[in-house]
Write a structure and sequence with these properties.
This protein is an alpha/beta fold and about 750 residues long. The protein has two domains: about 425 residues, Up-down Bundle (Amino acid/polyamine transporter I), CATH 1.20.1740; about 270 residues, Rossmann fold (3-Layer(aba) Sandwich). It is about 60% helix and about 10% strand. The chain has 27 helices and ten strands. The protein has a ten-stranded mixed beta sheet, sandwiched between helices. β1, α19 and β2 form a beta-alpha-beta unit. It starts with about 25 loop residues before the first helix and ends in an 8-residue tail after the last helix. The N terminus and C terminus are likely disordered. It is found in: Membrane. InterPro entries: AA-permease/SLC12A_dom, SLC12_C, SLC12A_fam. Keywords: Membrane, Transmembrane, Transmembrane helix. It is a multi-pass membrane protein. This is Na-K-Cl cotransporter.
């Protein structure tokens, strides 16, 4: 049954951009700067300065802003290359790295945005209770969260307009702080409270970092912007610059007006040192509420994009619904409200902030990786107006990952594990997007690099079969494909080929047949390439494939095909085998026992003729089968026939020695002719086997006669594989991993 999500075309891809959307100032700069100058600045910046001192604070601010700045460069590169629609960072990642990678980041990003609502409303509640101690902290937080959500549901535009007044209040509070005065005699403490146990540098960093993640507030409104490619870079960099300037000035003011212990213990210390203390309350209340509004506007839009792209389970598709002229995700807002209320009820500021830091750093890191890969590949389709060197993006990604481990290695591991689990879950759902991504470009770059560095000469140490299966109709000769898959272990390059002999076959039909074969293989968990070609006869087609198929030094080294059942075409068949041999391709012919097939896949017989040539290749093929899942732990019997008992003892000893040296799990069996022919011994000894390996002579002028005689010999035997080694490589060296090896 086909996955109902396959070929799902995202609804948001067909939504036209509307005129009259938000501009740079209102849509990006304002929500970003209000989130940057938010709850952390008012309620925790004094705590930061008190714990790590003036120099430590300036380092934290600079390092945090630097990571954010590098991420902003990456965001700007992506935003000026594509039309960024609903979903912000999720949209950017999914359209570049693929829907699985986008979903693996988008779901944690939504959770982070939803928890951000709680972060800001908890901060608001903390400040209100600090002024009015008689109020209940949790009640204030829950009521505030509910009020913010109702505002977002009723009118997103009204919520955005309210942010202009809040910005005025923040500006007023900062002016009041600048013109304030010290509250006590203090000396500037460069590295925090020396007389008490202060929090560590990276712990403080984790609490502060959400302050500079405000750039996501503007990015997450991408679907509501009139011109995202213009507004996102300008608004983001302006907000980062203004925020950095303010955060570099404030520590100096705080460090000169109160000592470290006071800064740590009083969350509203700014109110006491300001010219008009209540202006700080206006600022903190306005900042926390506006940041909460920004988050509750952004989070449901990420959720809406996830639902519309089919990332969320089918039963959650209703979360992609939009209401009103502005396509507002009101249903998603209600769900986000539920998440935020839960976090407000159970959490506090110092617990929520580090969790957000991990999620945001993960998102930032992947955004940087996305931009870095796009720029490194230099695909013709990637033409950003804002150009950034790939090294800066990858430096930003390295910075994000490094900081995550420095903050908390265990939490980082949990965050990565969470993302990986989501990625695997999405991969198993086999989602197909209606857009391209860079994954093909990555594989193309890696493939090219590998091909250009691959030597033409075959090396014994790295040899493995790369089969070309002449399967005909795969459903009729699936045993050939099954055998080839067992030999490659999904490591060698397997190609399934079919020759069409009908006249006037169009390229479209060939392409459709190739896709059908790919689907056939996929359902059976077989990884392989597919090639369909046309020719006058299957034998001409086989020659044509082996002549031309491959890329550079990477060509199939082993041809697997079925035995010829048509005596009228035996000459053409043998001529094709000779042609393969001349091209130095190993030939594996499967003489199928139609009644038994591969039997129980428990016993493999190899009729030995020496380690060189066919013997070494047969041993290798048997070993590969024995170590595959379908032939796991099959018993391998290496058989040899000699003239008398004296020869048998020497042969047994030599054969045991060979098996020991080649390090395979096999049993040597030496048989004596006596008064029996080889055919009689062959049928008696291998009658109970599930698979028999036999060598073939090198084709000569009388090869057709030889092969016809060989076919008669195989009648009544279990499924038999005839092997003809032709590569210019010593299979004995492959087995022994030595320059010299044992020969009989």
């Amino acid at each position: 049954m086909k996955n109902p999500l396959r070929k799902f075309i995202p609804k948001q891809e067909v939504i036209p951009s509307t005129k009259g959307g938000l501009g740079t100032f209102g849509g990006v700069f304002t929500p970003s700067i209000l989130t940057i100058l938010g709850v952390i600045m008012y309620l925790r910046f004094g705590w930061v300065v008190g714990n790590v001192g003036l120099i430590g604070t300036l380092i934290i601010v600079t390092l945090s802003t630097f990571i954010t700045f590098l991420t902003a460069l990456s965001i700007s590169a992506i935003a000026t290359d594509q039309r960024v629609r609903i979903g912000g960072a999720y949209y950017m990642i999914s359209r570049s790295l693929g829907i699985e990678s986008g979903g693996a980041i988008g779901i944690p990003l939504y959770i982070a945005q939803a928890l951000s609502v709680a972060l800001y409303t908890v901060g608001f509640a903390e400040s209100v209770v600090g002024v009015f101690p008689e109020l209940n902290f949790k009640v204030v937080g829950l009521v505030t969260t509910l009020a913010v959500a109702i505002l977002a549901i009723i009118s997103a535009k009204a919520a955005i307009r309210a942010q202009y007044f809040i910005m005025f209040g923040i500006a007023l509070s900062l002016l009041s702080l600048i013109f304030g005065s010290p509250i006590e005699q203090s000396s500037i403490e460069m590295w925090g409270a020396a007389d008490r146990h202060s929090e560590g540098f990276w712990t403080v960093f984790a609490v502060f970092f959400p302050a500079v993640t405000g750039i996501m507030a503007g990015v997450n409104m991408s679907g509501d912007l009139e011109d995202p490619s213009r507004s996102i870079p300008r608004g983001t960099f302006a907000a980062i610059g203004v925020g950095y300037l303010i955060y570099m000035i404030l520590p100096i003011i705080l460090a000169t007006r109160a000592d470290a212990l006071t800064l740590i213990e009083d969350p509203l210390i700014m109110r006491k040192m300001s010219y008009w203390g209540d202006a700080i309350l206006i600022g903190v209340w306005g900042a926390t509420l506006s940041s909460a509004v920004g988050s509750i506007l952004g989070a449901p839009r990420v959720l809406q994009a996830l639902a519309r792209d089919g990332v969320l389970p089918k039963w959650l598709r209703w979360l992609g619904r939009g209401d009103g002229d502005d396509d507002s995700p009101r249903v998603g807002t209600v769900l986000t409200l539920g998440v935020a209320l839960t976090a407000v009820y159970f959490g506090n500021l110092n617990i929520i902030a580090p969790i957000l830091t991990m999620f945001f750093l993960t998102t930032y890191g992947v955004l940087n990786i996305t931009a870095g890969i796009e720029q490194l590949l230099q695909s013709p389709s990637f033409r950003p107006k804002f150009k950034v060197h790939w090294s800066l993006s990858l430096l930003g990604a390295l910075g994000c990952i490094s900081v995550m481990f420095l903050i908390n290695a265990v939490a980082t591991g949990i965050a990565f594990l969470f993302v990986i689990i989501i990625f695997i879950w999405l991969q198993r759902r086999e989602l197909e997007s209606a857009w391209g991504d860079v994954r093909r470009g990555i594989w193309m770059a890696l493939t090219r690099a590998g091909l250009m560095r691959m030597s033409v000469e075959t090396e014994a140490k790295t040899w493995r079969p790369h089969p070309l299966v002449l399967s005909g109709a795969p459903t009729k000769r699936f045993h050939l494909i099954e055998l080839a898959s067992s030999l490659t272990h999904n490591r060698g390059i397997l190609t399934i080929s079919t020759v069409l002999t009908s006249q006037n076959i169009s390229h479209v039909r060939q392409t459709k047949m190739e896709q059908k074969i790919r689907d056939f293989l996929s359902k059976r968990s077989i990884q392989g390439l597919v090639r369909v070609t046309t020719a006058k006869s299957p034998f001409d087609g086989g020659k044509k494939l082996v002549d031309s198929y491959g890329l550079g030094a990477l060509v199939p080294n082993t041809v697997i095909l079925g035995d010829s059942e048509n005596t009228n075409s035996i000459n053409e068949y043998c001529d094709m085998i000779a042609h393969f041999n001349q091209l130095q391709r190993n030939v594996v012919i499967v003489h199928d026992n139609k009644e038994k097939g591969f039997g129980n896949k428990k016993i493999i017989d190899i009729w030995w003729g020496g380690l060189q040539g066919n013997g070494g290749l047969m041993i290798l093929l048997a070993y590969l089968l024995q170590s595959s899942r379908t032939w796991w732990d099959a018993k391998v019997r290496v058989k040899m026939v000699v003239g008398d008992e004296n020869a048998a003892k020497n042969a047994q000893s030599n054969l045991n020695d060979v098996i020991k040296k080649v390090r395979i799990d096999a049993k040597a069996e030496v048989l004596v002719y006596g008064d029996k022919t080889f055919n009689e011994i062959l049928h008696e000894s291998s009658g109970d086997a599930d698979l028999v390996f036999m060598g073939m002579a090198e084709p000569d002028e009388d090869f057709t006669s030889y092969y016809s005689h060989l076919q008669k010999r195989l009648k009544g035997l279990p499924t038999t594989i005839m092997v003809l080694a032709a590569e210019e490589i010593s299979f004995g060296s492959v087995l022994m991993q030595e320059d010299t090896f044992y020969e009989e």
